[in-house]
Amino acid sequence: MKNSWNKRAPAGLLCLALALALALALPATAASAGGTCMLHPDAFRLQSDALHWTIKIHSGAECIQGLRWSTIMIDSISIDEAPKMGRLLLEGPSFRYFSNPGAHGTDSFRISISGSSLRQKGTSSIEVEVAVD
After folding, report:
1. Which of 28, 41, 49, 55 suits 71 as a labelling partner, its CA being 20 to 30 A distant?
2. Residue 114 maps to a domain
């Protein structure tokens, strides 16, 4: 009597090997499509402070930037000035910027954050300059 698992094992291993080969062959850009905008942005303090951040992004790409800090409790985030060469979405305590395909040059937008830091209520304004290449 033959074991049916032995008949299927080579086919299963072949499928696994094929799936692994396809995963390794995918271009690296697919994994970075929703990349981080900045690794270590200057922190806002919710003390009527105004910050200037700079992002570099490829035309047609997107990035996500979190806005959480250890002592900050965010109540609201709003878009004060929308970008002109891309789209901006607020998603929880973060924003996602989408560069328009074919866009090149400099874009910018401004957001406001309100909440509390160490139990002190306040606001911050962040102007983001986007270099699109």
Report:
1. 55
2. yes
Rounded Cα gap, residues 70 and 75, in angstroms = 15
Strands (E), 4-119: 34-36, 49-57, 62-66, 72-81, 86-90, 94-99, 105-117
Q: How far apart are CA 78 and CA 92, in angstroms?
A: 11
User: Would you state the pLDDT for residue 73?
Assistant: 96
Does residue 44 lie within any of the structural domains? yes
- Rounded CA-CA distance 103/58 in Å is 9
pTM for this model (two decimals):
0.73
**Residue-number span of the structural domain to which 80 is assigned:** 32-132
Ranges in the chain, pLDDT < 50: 1-9, 13-33
pLDDT in tens, 25-58: 433 333 334 568 998 999 999 999 999 999 999 9
Long-range contact pairs involving 35-40 (C-beta distance under 8 Å, separation at least 24): 35/61, 35/62, 35/63, 35/64, 36/63, 36/64, 36/65, 36/66, 37/63, 37/64, 37/65, 37/97, 38/65
